[in-house]
């Protein structure tokens, strides 16, 4: 059936289909739809469909040769089937912000928040207003007086970050490896334990939940410690942060009150930034120092791949739910409850 302007939207979840792009956290989202009894479909680039065939969680696989095929006609077909699109990291990077903004098909989440997330200065403003502790940012390379991490704009998955501790070192690495890159941020390097906190905020229940937490498995940052310090120096290795996978973490319980409050402030402030504000899954990326100070260096305003180890739920969701609850399943449940309550509009961006 198709959604028309005259008829009120159907309150039957069977009339809708959960759709996402085949990458990132798609397996989790598709399984989540299955577990909630909703139909699903995944859109895959030809040649990348093997996991979606091998792991039997997709009801339907739509193949494209190129993401450019995603035009108004393509979208129209999705709309005719009442598809609700679930964004994830690869979803946005494959289709681009502009396409996502123009999208007329139903889309779970707030589109405007993507702008706040992807623009580093807007993101900082949001996090500062939320009274989070942030790493210092240096205006220009000449100001570097301590270890800093250099992040190029649009560097996907930590690829191309590097750490230096002086202006000279900065120019040495920059000119040698990235002579044509001029869009970067210089951030104080915080020594501590990285922690990625996965939240979920439902606009229906108005409740903030902590779903799970992870740390990343990065190359070569996670392998440098496997060789002696003198060998590291001899090999002249520059630390890199290319993400390879994710590992589950459970945080010391005494930090939980702070983590809840941080998430709540981020949601609260987002309501003053744009329309419906931030809802659904999001992640605060933090480093916790030995003095237990929590520095937040980034926010992801959507499902993160770090939720993937928790397809069968996490220790936190085990405390709250009677059934295995992944973030993918939680967001499909939000959609389903919204459909049944006639409040679908509230979870669409
Ligand atoms: P990102 O791609 O921003 O999530 O970060 C990639 C990697 O860089 C992660 O291992 C982070 O822990 C690390 N990282 C990013 N920013 C900082 C920072 N300000 N201080 C220390 N490590 C950082």
Tell me what the CATH architecture of the largest domain is: 2-Layer Sandwich
CATH class of the largest domain: Alpha Beta
Shape: globular
Mean pLDDT: 94
- Count of discrete domains: 3
Q: Strand percentage, roughly?
A: 15-25%
Structure description:
This protein has 349 residues and is an alpha/beta fold. It has three domains: 13-110 and 339-347, Rossmann fold (3-Layer(aba) Sandwich), CATH 3.40.50; 116-134 and 191-218 and 244-322, ATP-grasp fold, B domain (D-amino Acid Aminotransferase, Chain A, domain 1), CATH 3.30.470; 137-188, Dna Ligase, domain 1 (2-Layer Sandwich), CATH 3.30.1490. It is 31% helix and 23% strand. It is built from twelve helices and 14 strands. The protein has helices at residues 26-35, 50-54, 72-80, 89-95, 97-102, 112-118, 120-129, 167-177, 229-234, 256-273, 315-320, 327-340, and strands spanning 17-21, 39-45, 61-64, 83-85, 106-107, 137-138, 148-152, 162-164, 184-188, 193-201, 208-220, 241-248, 280-288, 294-300. A five-stranded parallel sheet has the order 3-2-1-4-5. Strands 12-11-10-13-14 form a five-stranded antiparallel sheet. Strand 10 and strand 11 form a beta hairpin. The structure holds adenosine monophosphate (AMP). Adenosine monophosphate (AMP) binds at residues 135, 149, 158, 161, 187-190, 194, 216, 218, 241, 285, 287, 297-298.
